[in-house]
Design a protein that fits this description.
The protein has two helices and no strands. With 99 residues, it is mainly α. The radius of gyration is 22 Å and the shape is elongated.
Length: 99
Amino acid sequence: MTYRPGIRMHDSLRVGKPGGVGQMSWALPRGYPPPYNARMLSLVFGTIAFFVASYFIKRYLDEIGIPKTLVRGLVVFVLALAAAYGVAFVVERAAGLAG
């Protein structure tokens, strides 16, 4: 596709960040979107929480004698994912309030 100076970009490609000029900035909550540091912190702590939770969940299921099956793997994954989401949510809220 070649560039033609007479053709303007479609409006959907020119929309800026939320809260910019001409947008409803009053409808967005304060601190939205969260700062970059808060998003990175939530990603890092959520990843760490996922692996820690999966380790302890696997260990607990081994202790009570649940056989290693596909269902057990899915249970470990879902519970570890829920823990990671919870930690990421708390970290993002804490970093958003602090910054």
